[in-house]
Amino acid sequence: MSKIDIKIIRKLLENGRAQDLLSLMNGESKYSSESSENLPSSKEEVNTYWMAIEHVTFVLKYGFNIKKVQDGTQFYSACPDYFEKWLTDGCPGIVNNDLNNYLKDNPI
After folding, report:
1. Domain span at residue 88?
2. 68 CB-near residues (< 8 Å, 6+ apart)
3. Which of 108, 105, 104, 100 is nearest to 33 (CA)?
4. Which pLDDT tens digit goes with each residue over 54-87?
5. Number of domains comprising the chain
6. Is residue 1 part of a domain?
7. Is the pTM of this model over 0.70?
8. Which of 36, 55, 77, 97 has the fewest CB atoms lying closer than 10 Å?
9. Contacts of 67 (CB under 8 A, 6+ apart)
């Protein structure tokens, strides 16, 4: 299994490709395979994975530089610490080959 380049993952988020990243994380991208490679394997990794998804979803909805927002009576916060932990854990939930196929068609 090849290691995922976390710099590329960061660039996707920072450069307005949160939806593409979210699709890759959720396995809903047209580039997602049926591979079981790089799945979250511990309870902590699963929790970090879901919180990273929450962070990417927040960035998609409110923008990269926003940290907290009030939407009606609800308050929402970005989760950059969980996202960084997810990166450090090796981006469980993303298959390197899927990412590479995405990048072939959508270079940074």
Report:
1. 6-105
2. 75, 76, 77, 78
3. 100
4. 999 999 999 988 999 998 999 999 999 999 999 9
5. 1
6. no
7. yes
8. 36
9. 77, 78, 80
